[in-house]
C-alpha cells in the first residue's frame, strides 16, 4: 500500500512532468507557427512574381500556400501585415546573401559584383521591385515600404562597415561604392526585365563596375 510520502512523491513527479510538457509545448507551437508564417510569405513572393501586387490577394496567397483563408488570418490579420512581413523577409534575405558573399569572396570586387548580379536574377528581387513600383501610387504600401527601408538601410550600413574594415577610413567612398553598385546592378536587372537592355551588355558593364570599385578601394 502506498504511503503518504509515496503519494506526495507521485504527485510531485506528475507535476514536474506537466511543467516540462507545458514549457516544451510553446516552443513546438512557436516553431510550427514560424514555419506556417514562412510558407505564407513564400507564397506571397510567388504570387507577386506571377500576378503582381494588384493581383496578390489574401485568398490567392492562402490557396498558393495550400491553406484556408481562415487559417492564414490566424497568422496575419490582414493583407497589410502580410505584406509588411514579406518586405521584412525580402530584406533579411538580402542581408543574409550579403553576409555569405562577404565571408566567402575575400572581398574581391569581381566576386562580390557577380554574387550581387545573381541575386537580382532570383524571384525575390522581382517581388521586391513589384512592391517598390506599386508603392508609388499606393499610400498604404508606401508607408510600409518606407519604414522598413529605413530600418534595412541602417542595419545594412552598420553590417557593411563591420564586414569590410578595410573601408573604415574612407566611409564616404565606401557609401558611394555601395550606392554605385546597387544602382547599376539593380537598374540593369530591371532593364533586362523590360527589354530595355541587351543581355550581351551585362558582362562588359559589370566589368566596368568592377574596375571602378577597385579604383575607389583604399590601398
Description of the molecule:
81% of the residues lie in helices and 0% in strands. The chain contains nine helices and no strands. With 219 residues, the chain is mainly α. Helix 4 (79-104) runs antiparallel to helix 5. The chain starts with a helix and ends with a helix.
Protein traits:
219 residues, mainly alpha, globular
Rough shape?
globular
Mean pLDDT: 89
Return residue spans where pLDDT drops below 50 for at least 5 consecutive residues. none
Biggest beta sheet summary? none
The overall strand count is: 0
Number of helical segments with 4 or more residues? 9
Q: Given the helix and strand composition, which structural class is it? A: mainly alpha
Helix content: over 70%
Cα radius of gyration in angstroms: 24 Å
* Secondary-structure element series: HHHHHHHHH
Which range does the strand content fall in? Answer: under 5%
N- and C-termini, Cα separation = 85 Å
List the helices and strands and how they pair.
Blueprint: H1 4-55, H2 58-65, H3 69-73, H4 79-104, H5 109-119, H6 123-134, H7 139-163, H8 171-194, H9 202-216
Helix pairs in contact: 1-2, 1-4, 1-6, 4-5, 4-7, 5-9, 8-9
Amino acid at each position: 500500500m502506498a504511503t503518504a510520502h509515496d503519494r506526495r512523491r507521485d504527485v510531485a513527479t506528475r507535476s514536474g512532468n506537466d511543467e516540462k510538457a507545458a514549457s516544451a509545448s510553446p516552443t513546438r507551437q512557436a516553431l510550427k507557427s514560424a514555419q506556417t508564417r514562412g510558407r505564407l510569405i513564400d507564397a506571397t513572393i510567388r504570387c507577386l512574381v506571377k500576378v503582381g501586387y494588384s493581383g496578390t490577394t489574401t485568398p490567392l496567397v492562402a490557396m498558393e500556400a495550400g491553406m484556408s483563408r481562415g487559417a492564414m488570418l490566424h497568422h496575419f490579420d490582414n493583407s497589410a501585415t502580410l505584406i509588411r512581413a514579406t518586405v521584412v523577409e525580402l530584406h533579411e534575405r538580402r542581408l543574409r546573401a550579403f553576409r555569405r558573399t562577404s565571408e566567402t569572396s575575400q572581398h574581391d570586387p569581381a566576386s562580390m559584383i557577380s554574387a550581387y548580379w545573381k541575386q537580382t536574377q532570383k524571384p525575390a528581387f522581382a517581388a521586391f521591385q513589384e512592391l517598390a513600383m506599386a508603392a508609388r501610387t499606393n499610400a498604404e504600401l508606401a508607408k510600409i515600404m518606407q519604414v522598413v527601408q529605413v530600418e534595412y538601410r541602417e542595419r545594412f550600413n552598420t553590417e557593411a562597415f563591420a564586414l569590410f574594415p578595410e573601408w573604415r577610413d574612407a566611409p564616404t567612398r565606401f557609401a558611394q561604392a555601395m550606392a554605385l553598385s546597387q544602382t547599376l546592378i539593380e537598374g540593369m536587372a530591371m532593364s533586362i526585365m523590360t527589354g530595355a537592355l541587351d543581355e550581351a551588355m551585362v558582362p562588359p558593364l559589370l566589368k566596368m563596375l568592377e574596375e571602378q570599385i577597385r579604383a575607389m578601394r583604399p590601398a
